[in-house]
């Protein structure tokens, strides 16, 4: 059982619990992206097992009436095993999504995997006519060229600031510089990208920038935030008519995910301490 201190950030250990969370969150006007916890598999068997779990989850979402989709990690479905394993499993999940009318997102991990991830995303997006989306990180210096390459690829792009500690030769380290590039890339997406735009950020400034660009270019966008982080803002944005998606992980590998959430933000640490103290 996931203790209450961690359940703020994790939607349960089972697919059934995750779907129940999605139902409750939908009732508050917020849609849900479900992610089965698991990553960095260097053997084929667990990558194939999680791929099969996503296929079952997608079938469960279909017909449930839920506003929900899925998001997978490249290292969860085989990229550390081989490019071929990743490609095959990505196609399996995207195919299941297309069969059941459930959108499939692919996260972005460390910079060593960017080329293969984008290669396979472009291939899958064109095959399945834009029924998939890809995360792109603003802190990487290569992202300008990556977005230019993806400009005519159907699907959706989720722009995030980037959470991986990359070498300064390939990434921006100053927060102000990352914010500057995020806004620059947002404008490129609104002006040039053929598909849908997702603002993957909890930063009110980035969301406000997207609002201004949406008005300027007469285009829609969605906001994506993590479960357990600024949930009041998620509900408020949804109540104002904005399309909001909550990224909700689930599964028995919740411990390491929870500790990452606690370490990365002071507010999360304070929440955990208050929960321990019972206040």
Q: How do the strands and helices of this protein lay out in sequence?
A:
Elements: H1 4-7, H2 15-27, E1 31-36, H3 44-61, E2 68-72, H4 83-100, E3 104-106, H5 114-127, E4 132-137, H6 143-150, E5 156-160, H7 175-192, E6 196-200, H8 204-217, E7 222-226, H9 231-239, E8 243-250, H10 254-264, H11 266-277
Parallel strand pairs: 1-2, 1-8, 2-3, 3-4, 4-5, 5-6, 6-7, 7-8
Explain how this protein is built.
The chain is globular and about 45 Å long. Helix 6 runs parallel beside helix 7 and helix 7 (175-192) runs parallel beside helix 8. 50% of the residues lie in helices and 15% in strands. Helix 9 links the parallel strand 7 (222-226) and strand 8. The chain has 279 residues and is α/β, with parallel strands linked by helices.
Strand content: 15-25%
Strand order of the largest sheet: 1-2-3-4-5-6-7-8
Order of helices and strands: HHEHEHEHEHEHEHEHEHH
Estimated helix fraction: 40-55%
What's the mean pLDDT score? 91
Q: What separation lies between the terminal Cα atoms?
A: 22 Å
Provide the low-confidence segments as ranges: 271-279
What sort of overall outline do the alpha carbons produce when their principal axes are compared? globular
Tally of DSSP β-strands = 8
